[in-house]
Design brief:
Elements (H helix, E strand, L loop, with lengths): L2 E3 L2 E3 L6 E5 L8 H14 L3 E6 L2 H4 L19 H8 L3 H13 L3 E6 L2 H9 L5 E3 L7 H8 L5 E4 L5 H13 L5 E6 L14 H9 L3 E5 L5 H8 L4 E5 L17 H18 L19 E4 L14 E4 L10 H4 L21
Helix pairs in contact: 1-4, 1-10, 6-7, 9-10
């Protein structure tokens, strides 16, 4: 199944769709946000993605403080964290305009219904639903009502949660759905990524499936393409050393460029089920081994392991026939260094 977002087709026989997730890596600088758009375009990404919320549309002051020593955000009040990470809504239009100038698709993850209304005014080509919002059915209904493609992350979700989300979208007018395998830890490890879920999820929900990859580096994303991922989403920053709420598990421009190159290579390498000699290999068949005369042989002389040798190139009788050749006789004089052929045998 193919789904079109902007001028890009996703799924089917199309190369992976690469999304650079800006998130809060702008570090509250619109100039830096613009630089991130430019860097993503320069690296060859297909899309740049924002997140559209305010602290008040996502949580309330004083309701939760993160208390997890393994979390990047340990000790932070949730309300304050989202205040630090949010992309101001007035930035969206200029960021989207810069993306259009750079020929890169721009869209966003809304976190409540008001964000959908706001993004509709900017004519976004698609919507992304974050893992922690995929059970927010009122939001799903609102997004579905736009009729635009929807990409849903599936981190921290039971299969029933995913099934419910897909059903709600379809029942409310959305039939262009892309799912992303996701592990909602930051960073995630390869061991808990389970990319073999990707082809199963695609078969189960009959839609394109990709990965929202929170691991370090690009290896997991490349492997995901090898098992059928149609979309790769990675958090993206200019320089991890600059800091920021998501910088620790974000990739830098050189890594994004390599991600674009290597995922396309992985995709192209999938090809089809193929055995036998391919057209491009035919000229190299000569590098296989064959039976050669290793010492001068007289007419009528017996072939033995002492006057024959299995070597490269492959212009003689195939090695598998050596037992048949041994103890037969030469039909004519043969010189050392020439390939043995069937017409040389009596």
């Amino acid at each position: 199944m193919e789904i079109q977002i902007g001028n890009k087709k996703i799924g089917g026989n199309n190369r992976p769709f690469i999304i650079a997730e800006m998130s809060g890596n702008h570090n509250q600088s619109i100039e830096r946000a613009m630089e991130i758009v430019d860097a993503a375009a320069d690296a060859g990404a297909d899309a740049i993605k924002l997140q559209t919320y305010t602290p008040d549309t996502i949580t309330m002051k004083g309701v939760y403080e993160i208390n997890d020593k393994d979390s990047l955000w340990n000790g932070k009040e949730l309300y304050d964290l989202y205040g630090q990470a949010q992309t101001p809504w007035e930035w969206h239009k200029p960021i989207f305009e810069r993306a259009k100038e750079r020929n890169i698709i721009a869209f966003s993850s809304p976190f409540d219904e008001s964000a959908v209304d706001f993004l509709e005014n900017l004519n976004v080509p698609a919507y992304k639903i974050a893992s922690f919002e995929n059970t927010h059915h009122p939001l799903l209904k609102k997004v579905a009502s736009t009729g635009k493609p929807v990409i849903i992350s599936t981190g921290a979700s039971k299969i029933s949660d995913i099934d419910d989300a897909v059903r709600v979208l379809k029942e409310n007018g959305c039939d262009k759905i892309i799912l992303l395998k996701c592990t909602s830890t930051y960073p995630a490890t390869p061991e808990n990524t389970n990319i073999l879920t990707i082809p199963h999820m695609s078969q189960l929900f009959e839609c394109p499936v990709g990965i929202s990859d929170h691991t370090m580096g690009i290896g997991v994303s490349i492997a995901a393409v090898a098992v059928g991922a149609s979309v790769i989403e990675k958090h993206f920053t200019l320089l991890r050393a600059d800091g920021g709420v998501d910088s620790a598990f974000s990739i830098e421009p050189d890594e994004l460029k390599q991600l674009v190159i290597e995922t396309e290579r992985a995709f192209l390498s999938l090809g089809k089920i193929s055995y036998g000699v391919t057209e491009v290999e035919k000229n190299n068949l000569s590098f296989k081994r064959s039976i050669y005369v290793s010492k001068d042989i007289l007419e009528g002389e017996m072939f033995t392991n002492h006057n024959l040798k299995i070597i490269r190139p492959g212009f003689g009788i195939e090695p598998k026939f050596l037992d048949i050749v041994i103890n037969t006789k030469a039909k004519k004089i043969l010189k050392a260094g020439q390939p043995l052929t069937w017409i040389d045998l009596l």
